[in-house]
Input
Amino acid sequence: MINRKSREEIKLMRHAGHIVALVHQKMKEVVEPGISTKELDNIAMKIIKENRAIPTFLGYSGFPACICTSINEQVVHGIPSEKVTVKEGDIISIDVGATYRGLVGDSAWSYAVGNVSDDIKRLMEATEKSLYAGIDKMRPGNTLNDISGAIEDVAVEYGYGIVRQYGGHGVGHTMHEEPFLYNYRVGDHTLIKSNYAIAIEPMLNIGGDDVEVASDEWTVSTVDKKPSAHFEHTVVATDDGPQIMTKLME
Output
């Protein structure tokens, strides 16, 4: 069952999303060659706690950190570590969740580390473009398939693989609610209604679609070891159009 959010729930989700956006604002400043993923995690934890929120990911199904840090061929769910530092030319996806007064904001962004190749720039451009193409379809009267198809069309335009085992999801009182949102067409004609909240999150690969889970039982990487990018916003469908929750409040 997909739960429609009340005005008060949306207000709290927007606040949670603002906190997530504060983390990403800081990540943009501090991601540079030599910083460890554990240091990034510590910075995110400090911001979330200073804003009287709870790091949603920490302890979620046993996940041991506040953020997910996934580098190069790693797609999602990378675990921060003092032993892992980013290098010039890397791409790193940072996924952040914050829970404020019981409501969740969830957003991921991919960052270039220093100067990156034209291939990485193009991958990031395409994945971000596919995110906003999907967001544009998050309107009452459209279907989940409309969102999925918009994402798929951008991936096809650029010739990229689409991660098929993972996708977007409803979000609200918990990080994962109904529905599951594929990043390619599957014929899901579930109607979008006003005040539905979904985390839209395309993951595109320079190579093929296939991914695998590492021995740590968390980190997901491309099988062909080619780079992947990941962009995500929490979005609420309204009669006035899609509203992004995970951005800085004015």
Summary: The mean pLDDT is 98. The first helix runs from residue 7 to 30.
